[in-house]
Amino acid sequence: MKRIGALKQGLAAFCCALGPAAGAGGAYAEGWIVTIGARATERPPYEGADHDVLRPTAIFSLRRADHPYRFTPPDQGGSIGLLSSRYIVAGPTIRFQYSRPDTGAFTGFDKIGFAAEPGVFVDLWPVDWLRGRVEVRRGISGHSGVVGDAGLDLVYTGHRWDFSVGPRFGYGDSRYLDTYFGVTNQDALRSPIVTTPYEPGAGTRYYGGELAGAYHITSRLWTIADVGYHRLAHPAANSPLIQAVGSRDQVAGSLGLAFLFGVRGGNVEANEQATW
Fold first, then answer.
1. Three state DSSP letters for 132-200
2. N- or C-end of the chain: fewer Cβ atoms within 10 A?
3. Domain count across the chain
4. Cα-based distances in Å from 243 to 7, 177, 201, 231
5. pLDDT tens sequence for the chain (276 residues)
6. Residues near 64 by beta carbon (within 8 Å), at least 6 away in sequence
7. Is 53 helix (H, G, I), strand (E, B) or coil?
8. What letter would DSSP give residue 112?
């Protein structure tokens, strides 16, 4: 209980720090709604892998308590909506990729470390049942490239059940694609499997789709599940690495449990009655 209390106090202090940036006139007088939880996620450890790994991942989101709840699929990066209105939500986001070894099938290649990719996101809601999202991020470990992800979702937000479905698209600059899909002359000389140099350059990383749903056990507790599919596109799919030791087909899924609570005056039950 002490840890939960400390977490709430810390989030309250964080929200208070955000408050002045929102503008004058008590824009945040209604407080914030925090969602925290955990998911069991099975997905490729890095883009292009030919296998999946099962690992825990965190659920975290923060929204103004005077804004109504709208379901969003969990395949996006961890985000905080600093700018939030009926039609647009924007702020910082972050995603991660696990390391790629320099042993086994990757003997002769340099190891790629754990990658953190902070950036920004924008959600566009022309209507309550349609959401477009764009993320732009830059690697600060593992790789130094710039990546972008975009999606368009049909969204149903209900009293007990939520659903969403829509396409996905990814882009990577030359630094990113060279890191994960490129083969240098030195790599080709050292590798016993991949012997052809390859320089992918910038371009489309993947195209695919995402299906997600949630069930609200109570107003404060809900479960969420999703499954997504990415098909690596050219130039990533043309890499000798993918053809020899990787896979164009990238499948991910998760099942999680989340808990909602209010800070700085936010009331979860009152938020259920919020309207635009």
1. EEEEEEECCCCCCCEEEEEEEEEEEECCCEEEEEEEEEEEECHHHHHHHHCECHHHHHHCCCCCCCECC
2. N
3. 1
4. 47, 15, 17, 14
5. 444 454 444 444 444 444 433 333 333 336 888 889 999 999 999 999 999 999 999 888 887 888 888 999 999 888 888 888 899 999 999 999 999 999 999 999 999 999 999 999 999 999 999 999 999 999 999 999 999 999 999 999 998 999 999 999 999 999 999 999 999 999 999 999 999 999 999 999 999 999 999 999 998 999 999 999 999 999 999 999 999 999 999 999 999 999 988 876 666 666 666 666
6. 28, 30, 31, 32, 33, 81, 84
7. strand
8. B
Rounded CA-CA distance 237/176 in Å is 14
3-state secondary structure at position 19: helix
Instruction: State the residue range of the domain holding 78.
Output: 2-19+31-271
Residue 276 belongs to a domain:
no
User: Does some domain include residue 190?
Assistant: yes
Any domain includes 135: yes
Q: What is the CATH number of the domain that holds 247?
A: 2.40.230
Residues, the chain, total?
A: 276
Distance of CA 267 to the CA centre of its chain: 26
Residue 12 lies in a domain: yes
Whether the CB-CB separation of 125 and 113 falls below 8 Å is answered with no
Q: Among the residues of the chain, which ranges form H helices?
A: 2-18, 174-181, 185-190, 240-245, 268-271
